[in-house]
Amino acid sequence: MLSNNILKSGEQMIGAIVITFNPNIEILTKNLHSIIQQVENVLVVDNGSNNFPEFVDILRESKIKIINFEENLGIACALNEGMNYFKKKKIPLGIDLGSRFNSP
């Protein structure tokens, strides 16, 4: 389990990459609220979810950035996009909807 403080590695901050595809909105909401307390930034890469309009509003949190693919390009493409986003800025932490986090 992650610590209660924002994760750091040396002087670099850790950013979380959350990959979504038709997520359970309740689980996504709970996880994102927990994750944003534990890392500096969160990037949600949505893989063309049919229900994206239903959960886009919860992604408007200031620490959450969004990349939305028009279609499902696969987890590898989504992770690569996330890695490119955090390149040289942060140490990325890849997370999918199977990941569970307890609130600090």
Give the topology.
Elements: E1 8-9, E2 12-20, H1 25-35, E3 41-47, H2 52-55, E4 64-69, H3 75-86, E5 90-95
Parallel strand pairs: 2-3, 2-5, 3-4
Antiparallel strand pairs: 1-2
Query: What kind of sheet is the major sheet?
Result: 5 strands, mixed
As a percent range, the share of helical residues equals 25-40%
Report how far the terminal alpha carbons are from each other: 10 Å
Mean pLDDT: 78
As an assembly, this protein is: single chain
Beta content comes to 25-35%
Low-confidence stretches: 1-7
Structural class estimated from helices and strands: alpha/beta
Number of strands: 5
The radius of gyration is 13 Å
What does this structure look like?
The chain has 104 residues and is an alpha/beta fold. It is built from 3 helices and 5 strands. Strands 1, 2, 3, 4 and 5 form a 5-stranded mixed β-sheet that branches. Helix 2 links the parallel strand 3 and strand 4. It is globular.
Keywords:
5 strands; 3 helices; 5-stranded mixed β-sheet; 29% strand; alpha/beta; 104 residues; globular; disordered N terminus
Summarize the structure.
By secondary structure, the protein is an alpha/beta fold. Helix content is 26%, strand content 29%.
